[in-house]
Amino acid sequence: MPKLSRRAILATGTAALPLFAISAKPSRAADFTLKLANNSPVTHPQTVRQQEAAERIKKATNGTVDIQVFPNNQLGSDTDMLSQLRTGAIDFFTLSGLILSTLVPVAAINGVGFAFKDYDTVWTAMDGKLGAHVRGEIDKRGLVAMDRIWDNGFRQITSSTRPIKAPEDLKGFKIRVPVSPLWTSMFTALGASPISINFAEVYSALQTKIAEGQENPLTLIQIAKLYEVQRYVSMTSHMWDGFWMLANKRGFTALPPDAQAIIAKELNQSALDERADIAKLNESVATDLKTKGLVFEDVDKPAFRDALKKAGFYADWKKKFGDEAWGILESQVGTLS
Length: 337
Ligand code: X2X
Fold this sequence. Notes:
This protein is of the alpha/beta class.
């Protein structure tokens, strides 16, 4: 990571310019020009708060650490960006634990269906024992996860073809899911026909009806304008999903220790700010989406959970995650199977 790539950014031409390439110049040239990437739209709180962290970090390091934020899949799909993070081509990257599970299997554990009943339980677990366990496993794979996970949210199912009211309505339903075994397994267990597609392609996949539906938190459905290509939303809250702020370990640990500490502190602070932003948006997002034409369906959540149970989903994933990790999850959220 510490490439000493002074002004490297100026040499990249106009392609994929970072969001705020023309921001105020530091008082001196940066010693460390680092790239932070995400898959979120530029107006998503994730991007906004990462940009703020970058500014605070620049200031607190007297301009020596210059983090350039590349939002909205500018550097590629999640799958591409994870590879780039591992080689050190990207220095920081926020990624759903479920997608990270292709490298660190236990990172999918917060996505177990209906594991979290509310946000209090989420933060107790993810800022507590469960998150610590996952970060420990991430660390073994050459990456560093900052302590505070960023909120994506509780996921809801949308559809352009028919309202999903009960598990039976998912039979054969062509639903886009992110690229992750847990997601595919969950929707297969519910009788749907999941298709794995990176977020960068979701809008067009829905528009062209390669997929009839998808599932994401309401805030993202709003900010990524998925309501333009979807008609119904079913309030399943079938899983909670968050983004780990990951760093390439080789690069991160080669930075001066005080720079590492400043970066970690500011990224963690911005994660908390982003959580608060999403909580605020959650108060108004449903009303807003209704005015944009989305038709809301309240569903019988226990019926979806029972369908998962009957299909052996919990037993299967308990075995995959192993007794230790499953035990930690249940110690935080209650008995699941
Ligand atoms: O790909 C998605 O659906 C998203 C944006 O929610 C994730 O990053 C998992």
